[in-house]
Design brief:
GO terms for molecular function: aldehyde dehydrogenase (NAD+) activity. The protein is α/β, with parallel strands linked by helices. The protein contains 12 helices and 15 strands. Helix 4 packs parallel to helix 5.
Length: 289
């Protein structure tokens, strides 16, 4: 029986775990909290609580993995992903079929311009620099690893419903601040596909290919909730209201193409348009298997 190891089994990892279990895999999920362990066990995975900041998992566990899915975030500080560094060291030359969920933030701000996988990285925050570090370390340890650069992940339970219903303001994006998204069910399917197939490239933009403005997304969600569009504020007011992390996201604008992904993998998105994805998400948690 093949073994799939998932490091960082949150919402996306659960979807991968469910697919692996359904395929007859032995699945181990390394998680940080007891609540996450319970969720992983519910889909049929063996769950182990582990703190990657304390120590990496034992080499024997990593060596037993035929497939490795890494979706754990980097540490909160610094420019290096010490968690990924520990994993790469513990792999000790073992090279399982590997997929890493990175972030579109590695591209930095492009003023609304298009980015593809050949666009040089230009991280504008320490958070993004940690992701670049993780990508580099993983490709040195496992050159065949597939890196999926994901933008905003949305889905059931991952929508700003409370903020919209409360009438909280959003930044007026009249300056054409573009954002990109992927529904969590599409991301889970792509990750599972990545560790089961041989693709032509090692790096992909994991996005639905339908960039939109932030206000269009918020207005659409408000419409589907049957409430008024959120009020707009300018940047000066946003600096007074929003956290530094939220402002860092708002300061970047880019449009991501998924042409390479579609060409190489033949994947057909469940939700290529965010409106359909929002409708499905608001209906409740779908079966993740």
């Amino acid at each position: 029986m093949s073994h799939t190891l998932i490091i960082g089994c949150g919402d996306t990892g659960l979807r991968v775990a469910a697919r692996a279990v359904a395929a007859g895999e032995r699945v181990t999920a390394l998680v940080r909290s007891r609540a996450s362990a319970i969720r992983a066990r519910r889909v049929g995975a063996l769950a182990r609580q582990w703190d990657l900041d304390d120590k990496p998992p034992e080499t024997a566990l990593l060596a037993s993995a035929d497939r490795l899915v890494y979706s754990a975030p980097p540490p909160r500080q610094g420019t290096a992903d010490t968690r990924m560094a520990g994993i790469c060291e513990a792999l000790a030359g073992h090279r399982p079929a590997t997929a890493y969920i990175s972030t579109s933030g590695v591209y930095g701000d492009h003023g609304g311009g298009w980015v593809d996988e050949d666009t040089p990285v230009a991280p504008g925050s320490e958070r993004a620099r940690r992701r670049v570090d993780a990508e580099t370390r993983l490709h040195e340890a496992v050159p065949e690893a597939v890196i999926l650069r994901a933008p905003g992940i949305y889905g059931p339970g991952r929508l700003p419903v409370d903020r919209i219903l409360a009438g909280e303001p959003v930044l007026d994006d009249s300056a054409h601040a573009w954002t990109n998204r992927i529904h969590i069910d599409d991301l889970g399917a792509l990750v599972w596909k990545a560790v089961n197939e041989r693709w032509a490239h090692r790096l992909y933009n994991a996005t639905d290919g339908t960039p939109t403005s932030r206000t269009a997304y918020s207005d659409t969600l408000a419409e589907l909730l049957g409430t008024d569009p959120p009020p707009r504020i300018d940047w000066a007011e946003a600096e007074q209201r929003f956290s530094a992390m939220r402002l860092s996201f708002l300061s970047e604008s880019r449009r991501m193409t998924n042409a390479r992904l579609l060409r190489d993998t033949g994947y057909r998105f469940l939700f290529p348009d965010y409106r359909d994805g929002l409708i499905a998400s608001l209906r409740g948690e779908p079966a993740i298997s």
